[in-house]
Amino acid sequence: MAKERPEKAEETEQMIEKEGGKEAAEVPGGAADGRDMRAVLLSAFGGLNKLRVARKVMPEPQDGEVKIRVKACGLNFIDLMVRQGNIDNPPKTPLVPGFELSGIVEALGGNVTGFEIGDRVMAFVNYNAWAEVACTPAEFVYKIPEDMSFSEAAAFPVNFVTAYMMLFEVANLREGMSVLVHSAGGGVGQAVAQLCSTVPNVTVFGTASAFKHEAIKTSLNHLFDRNSDYVQEVKKISPEGVDIVLDCLCGENTGKGIGLLKPLGTYILYGSSNMVTGETKSFFSFAKSWWQVEKVNPIKLYEENKVMSGFSLLNLLFKQGRAGVIRAAVDKLLALYNQKKIKPLVDSLWALEEVKEAMQRIHDRGNIGKLILDVEKAPTPLVSIILIIYCKSLLSSLWAAPLLISCSAAAPALEMGTVRCIEVGAGTAML
Ligand SMILES: NC(=O)c1ccc[n+]([C@@H]2O[C@H](COP(=O)([O-])OP(=O)(O)OC[C@H]3O[C@@H](n4cnc5c(N)ncnc54)[C@H](OP(=O)(O)O)[C@@H]3O)[C@@H](O)[C@H]2O)c1
After folding, report:
1. Which one, out of 192, 193, 212, 315, has a CA that is 20 to 30 A from the CA of 402?
2. What angle do CA 84, 86, 89 make, to 5 degrees?
3. Which of 48, 273, 361, 371 to mutate to test the pocket of ligand 1 (most atoms within 8 A of CB)?
């Protein structure tokens, strides 16, 4: 295989130190014995320009670990926040981002049982997922069904386990209850909607950007524009409010969510998307969101019979040692998948080299479902991108349609998702 020659790395990127010191070093020009791999590298916290693909020494499994030849990786909202350094106790950079992947078991470390080389798996990884090869403790690895594609498998763990744990372990969702979920067209939002449909007579209220409504309207009972006064909209339909509020936005939505709870209802804070207001971390957005959070008095909760809780999957897995609880949830979720009751919604596939464009799509709120980094996908040729942007900018002209068709024919390898992203980008550019 021809080796990609990366641009010269900065001094600090030559050796990557991670907690535990297991992180593989970057290899400018590739390792002499060919035991190197492509990986996405975050050189420092900040904007999209801090991301690039580099060659690194391939990791080898330690005791208790599984080495996986990665096929696809999940791109989550938290990855944007990691890139910005917008998380608690961020690790040192440079680092390889990514918390979930799917692929094929390539080797086993000592004392690993239950897996064989060649098994198709999905896994959680505490960083380092966005690479051609990754190692992770066997307790975070799960075999996948034969009919589950690698893209689906990479879209599965974070979204469905988060949705499952919140609905069934924290909020105890039961027949006849009602749920409010924000970002309803996103990865977690769609997993929540699907899991709610597995329980009889559950009413799901959701908020999302208006352009997504047509695509996702059948997955929820009531859908509101994210900019609307959703509290009044919910109360018009259900004056008592709802049983479960899932809040990934934080800030002013915290008080609104708690206010919407019925007696014995549960509010769960599981994200702070409102803090992301641009490409880089904004202290102003952080302070505003923090300031707007309702300071809740437990005595008020007692008087009103309300439950307030929080959920963090990554902390549960990697800091609080609850891999067993998560495996039980994954087993139940895979049973639902096998019964065809749930199915990950994949928005689009991207090459590792297209990670910036993929992240931009989330910043632009363009995704419906999950974005996947497909390790084997070749980047979209630049000439195709230019042609399509050009054609899109001419859409209002009569002669644009035939030109658009010829452009599409000239770029047959383009993935649907990539085209959609370019449309969004072109639309933004035209505005
Ligand atoms: N606690 C946990 O364990 C856990 C696990 C997974 C995810 N999460 C959280 O759950 C939320 C959803 O995560 P996800 O990975 O499924 O992502 P996602 O929903 O696919 O994220 C993209 C969508 O979020 C909405 N959004 C809200 N605020 C935004 C902002 N400031 N910038 C851009 N988009 C914004 C947009 O949809 P609309 O415009 O349609 O609203 C956008 O399309 C995030 O807050 C994430 O941190 C938490």
Report:
1. 212
2. 120
3. 273
Instruction: Give the residue, out of 188, 192, 214, 250, with the most ligand 1 atoms within 8 A of its beta carbon, to mutate for a pocket test.
Output: 188
The two tokens of residue 1 are 């295989």
Distance (Å, rounded) from C-alpha 315 to C-alpha 305? 28
Reported as a single tens digit per residue, the pLDDT across 107-139 is: 999 999 999 999 999 999 999 999 999 999 999
Compute CA distances 213 → 208, 233, 263, whole Å: 7, 16, 30
Which of 248, 272, 314 is the pocket-test mutation for ligand 1 (most atoms within 8 Å of CB)? 248
Distance (Å, whole) CA 428 – CA 117? 46
How does pLDDT run across 234-270, given as a tens digit for each residue? Answer: 999 999 999 999 999 999 999 999 999 999 999 999 9
User: 334-353: string of b/e by CB count within 10 Å (b at 16+)?
Assistant: bebbeeeebebbbbbbbbbb
- Report field, pTM of the whole predicted structure over 0.70: yes
Longest distance between any two alpha carbons in the chain, whole Å: 68
What is the per-residue pLDDT across 273-328, written as a single tens digit (0 to 9) for each?
Answer: 999 988 888 887 777 777 778 788 899 999 999 999 999 999 999 999 999 999 99
Question: How many other C-beta atoms lie within 10 A of the C-beta of residue 401?
Answer: 11
Ligand 1: residues within 6 Å at CB? 76-78, 158-159, 162, 183, 185-189, 208-209, 212, 226, 248, 270-271, 273, 276-277, 311-313, 362-363, 365, 367
